[in-house]
Request: fold
Amino acid sequence: MTLLFVNAAQVVTCRGVGAARRGREMSDAGVVTGVAVAVTDGTIAAVGPQAELERGYAHASRVDCDGRLLTPGLVDSHTHAVFGKPRFEEQELRAAGLDYMEIARRGGGIHASVRDLRARDEDSLLELAVVRLRRLASYGVTTVEVKSGYGLTPEDELKSLRVVRQLGERLPMRLVPTWLGAHEIPLEFREVREGRSEYVRLLVSTMLPGVASEGLARFADVFCEPGVFTIDEARTILTAARSAGLGLKLHADELRPSGGAELAAEIGATSADHLAAISETGIRVLAESNTVATLLPGTMLFLGKEKQAPARALVDAGAAVALATDFNPGTSPTTNFPLIMTLGVSQLRLSVAEAMIAATVNGAAALSLADRIGQISPGFSADLALFDAQDVRELPYWYGDRRCVATWVRGRACHTSTVETL
Ligand SMILES: [Zn+2]
Reply:
């Protein structure tokens, strides 16, 4: 089966080596005009002058891009998409000045999501997540990482990861499962002496072997922040996860600089995520490492924080920066990835090309997939998105708009929507 994508106003190829793009390498998104893209059996076969490819692929099925923008499918490398009820009641409490502790005291916060998820079965969680991921797909996302982390018991964490596995079977999107049993210390362990160390033991000795033996996760992640998991606890959990064959991720330096970025580099984590409070040393160490710095500007915006991660300093120091939604019920309930790219430019001061690379190649690198997705280049998977725009700069410009009209994963139609007549 061969497809030929023709008549795109621009093709944003993001082409380059199949690895994270660092520092100045992020400043070229490989935008080309007058080219067609040939796809054979789900893989990109050629990108070249349209007239030439029309001759070479005369028998291919044509996909008319009709003067729109063709890009690699967006890669959302950080979500918590398996959850039960949303937590919209917390937003105006925050606006009224209530802090996290007070919201938690009233029964809200992450513990509310944990209580809710524990009470649901797999089918209920699956139905909710299918709808949410379809929404994410409708914004141009073709690969999504999904974390567990609202179960916090061996059986509820396995239940969450089995839901992710089912999502992968049900949806055409590419799913990457991450075990985040270390998202929080559950209340039943917080309230007893030695509870913390007991919970870390439960994570390492019971939960992790269960997750690994069922092959339910590609990555392990830890929420490393003062008051949640310490640097030493995160090191213990992630070292065990590495021995169990999982890749490593870390929620690091979101609210206060605690050495999370340094730990991520030290243990060779695939990504360090959040980083709004990363230290100067953390920036330097990450820039010298192979760890991708995944920034989540939607979270800070939604929480009403003035502060954002120092994206400019990270890129200028030579780090590989990725952008992601952090889609979750408490602090970033959005599936609008292009809006995150808008924030990447307007809040994080990235160039459009840098935001584009951060949402494709470097998102893929944050999932150890940069050798097969994230660019429109021969040999890469035909994971593509078509936007109702003529210029790449329009993607972050029409902020909040849903401009994506279609996506393909491995050359198969994933999402399609009818274009409204303006
Ligand atoms: Zn997160």
